[in-house]
Amino acid sequence: MQITLKTVETEEEIALTARLAKEIWHEHYDALIGVAQVDYMLSHFQSGEAIAAQIETGTVYVLAYWAGEPAGYCAYRPEEEKMFLSKIYVRNELRGRGIGKAFFDHVEENARGKRSVYLTVNKHNDHSIAVYERVGFAVADQVCTDIGEGFYMDDYIMEKALA
């Protein structure tokens, strides 16, 4: 396996994560929610400053490398009884190589003792929903969140029980 996972700790790793976010989000979300909302969300939630602030408040960011090259990232935040999988993104050309599975395995390993892992996903993101279902997540609820400037996140909450 050519996958290496590394917890984001340095300013350089934070900057790399923000660059990956910009690349991957535009690849994946422009057609789904529009360029304007993608740009808004990147600037508010996935800039270097936003990522650093999230890390300061307990969110763990993890970079994946494929054969030494940056391949994607995930982020998760432990809660009392659950683990919130906030983000899981892989560069388009590297999908299907087990990187997503490595992220899921890593998050579940870090969720030991928790009741479940949960995430949110856009209701129209059919591909990602199918991936989450394949690894054991099921729709548990739905939520529509006003994120400002007329933009909304219309999501399913998907959850996977842990043994």
TrEMBL record:
SUPFAM superfamilies: Acyl-CoA N-acyltransferases (Nat) (SSF55729). It comes from the Bacteria. InterPro entries: Acyl_CoA_acyltransferase, GNAT_dom, MshD_Acetyltransferase. One of its GO terms (molecular function) is protein-N-terminal-alanine acetyltransferase activity. Residues 16-163 form the N-acetyltransferase domain. Gene3D superfamilies: 3.40.630.30. PANTHER family: L-AMINO ACID N-ACETYLTRANSFERASE, N-ALPHA-ACETYLTRANSFERASE RIMI. This is GNAT family N-acetyltransferase. The lineage of its organism: Bacteria, Bacillati, Bacillota, Clostridia, Eubacteriales.
